[in-house]
Amino acid sequence: MIVVERIAPDGTTHRITIGHHELISDMAAPDGADEGPDPHDLYDAALGACKAMTMLWYAKRNGIPLEGIRVGVSRDASGERQGVYRLTTRVAIDGPLSEEQRGKLETVAGKCPIHRLMADARTEIETILVPEGRSCDLA
After folding, report:
1. Helix (H), strand (E), coil (C) string for 65-91
2. Coil/strand/helix, residue 108
3. What is the distance between the alpha carbons of residues 71 and 51, in angstroms, rounded to a whole number?
4. CA separation for the pair 77, 40 (Å, rounded)
5. Cis geometry, peptide bond prior to residue 30 (ω within 30 degrees of 0)
6. pLDDT at position 137, please?
7. From 58, 105, 117, 134, which residue has the greatest number of CB atoms within 10 Å?
8. Tens digits of per-residue pLDDT, 104-139?
């Protein structure tokens, strides 16, 4: 379970706890203190991380000598209110790779689970407001 909790009573910075990992999220100034990435950044970063990890996993399983990988993610949110949120990823890979291997890695990047989730799945979200003083634990 993921828990998001406000850190200071008068601030916008939140602690995100995922298992034993902690992240910080905030809003950019002037609305927030810019103490961490905002939720859009975290959403976009999930795509970049998934592409990198999926390509690395595929390369390891298939003996492809992938030595380095960097994924840049840029966003165009100008149409977000109309239902269009456009992300562009640019992937740089290093290693003694053939054109065939590079092509396979590019194909695999488009099949990462988060890419498919963002592009193909319909997400259903339920929000439940719990009574004051109660845990947000879903279990």
Report:
1. CCCEEEEEEEEECCCHHHCCCEEEEEE
2. helix
3. 8
4. 10
5. yes
6. 74
7. 105
8. 999 999 999 999 999 999 999 999 999 888 888 765
Q: Going by CATH, does the domain composed of 38-123 fall within 1.20.120.80?
A: no
Compute the distance between CA of residue 114 and CA of residue 23 in angstroms, rounded to an integer: 19
β-pairing, 68-76 vs 86-94, is: antiparallel
Any idea of the CA torsion for 94, 97, 100, 104, to the nearest 10 degrees? -40
User: Tokens 């492809």 sit at which residue?
Assistant: 64
- Given a contact cutoff of 8 angstroms between Cβ atoms, the answer to whether 22 and 15 are in contact is yes
Q: What is the residue extent of each domain of the chain?
A: 38-123
- Reported as a single tens digit per residue, the pLDDT across 30-79 is 999 999 999 999 999 999 999 999 999 999 999 999 999 999 999 999 99
Query: What's the pLDDT score for residue 139?
Result: 56
The tokens describing 11, both together, are 């601030």
H or E segment to which residue 46 belongs:
helix 39-61
pLDDT digits (tens, 9 = 90+) for 84-111: 999 999 999 999 999 999 999 999 999 9
